[in-house]
Give the backbone structure.
Amino acid sequence: MLDIEDLKKALVRFNLSLEIAKADLRKSYNRTVIGPFWETISLGLLLSIMSIVWSQIIKSDDVSYVPYLVIGMVVWRFISQVLNSSSWLFIERDDIIKYFNIPLSSLAITKVIYAIFIFFHHLPLIFIFCFYYKINLIHLNLFYLLYGIVVFIITSYSISLLIGILTLRFRDMISLINTITSVMIFFTPILWSPDKLSGKTKFYVIDFNIIYHYIELIRQPFLGNAPSNLNISVTLVSTLFLLTFALFILNKFKSKIRYWI
Amino acid sequence: MASISLKNVCLNYPVYGKKNINSFITNQISVGGTIVEKNKFYTIEALKNLSIDFRDGDKVGLIGHNGAGKSTLLKLAAGIYPISSGSMSISGKVQSLFDPRAGLEPEEDGIKNIKRLTLLLNQNFNLIKKKIPEIIQNSELGDYINFPVKTYSDGMKLRLCFSVITSWKSDIFLVDEFLSVGDEKFHIYAKKKLNNIIEKASIVLLASHNLAYIEALTNRLVILNSGKVEYDGKTKNGLDYYKSLRKK
């Protein structure tokens, strides 16, 4: 029913996923002098400019707006990294899939590790901006991050696997996922605060937006608050659902995946 | 004790994205498995009702036309392709070498690719780590080991793969046809390495169009024709039969 065996084997062979992810990172920044720290510089520059311009455009107090924007953008980069790179999960690894007997979950785990590597290069930006705007980062609500991290890792694996299988079978999905990802940043409260909306619009755009609940799991603890009960319950249910669904789909189509290449 | 046992095994490849074929030119098909159309959906019958056993001491050469089912049979035994119907049982640790380019990361140097290959082939890298100097020496790649693999020729990539997989013992060894690459010096090297593998393993399946290799290295020959076994017996007799077929 659920291909838990594939996930178990992939976890036993975690070093394989780690090695592929490390090689991908080295390859992305091959022959550059500062390597993946370009990630820090490029997002840092973008956020610096946005913090000056956007806080005036949306007429927000920059002390409360900028840390909100920075944390949201760093988390969003992690999410978009997982969504976009997973479109190529199996397609770009055809040589491995066709010639080596590896658990397919290993490749999904590779995408999660890669996104974590990039996240760690963005993470200093949160500390820098929070320090600049005198946001206190030492408080008990920070422990909520542990829940957030676990939920993010499991969901990223599940989503990566699902997108990988979907795009392998239906190649139009690659463009569709790219389109959805580029739209979601404007649709989700990252550049703007949820209190800018009200009534039914707020209900549909925010409460129904799973990505918002996931972002809140990381953003609120950094800002000194606890995520809401709604954030925690929505993410818990969706994490369990996505994991179950991904392992179900893997079990159902595993025998066909190597033919879809 | 190592063994591979297949009973009435069929393997059909579904073909996706193929537009309608208006008429089959069946008389002209001399390669590949049979193409079957059902409700405008195409499948290729790569293996048909295959029943065959391989036991300890079998050093098997697999020959046949392009698309006869040699690679499919090997990938089936390696656990890469699932069977469509029938049953298969394998006992023993399986190791395979299919394409020397597969799995290697062209931007990384030889040493990093040794680690990558070891992990892809499901070996414990901590045990292999101690053998890296020996692997490098066996590859005879010299200073190239520190160069990106994209600078290697196919023969050099194969040297790297050979030196990695001969650093551990496997019960069952599966080798696909890639022996056409490389110069004369490479062929001497490849034969030596293959001999080394064959001596260590209990069962070897070697698919190749290179009959000289098959004659020198195997004691049993299986000739496949469009997914079926056409001959299964001693190598020498089988090669004579195969050569007589080709003359017709």
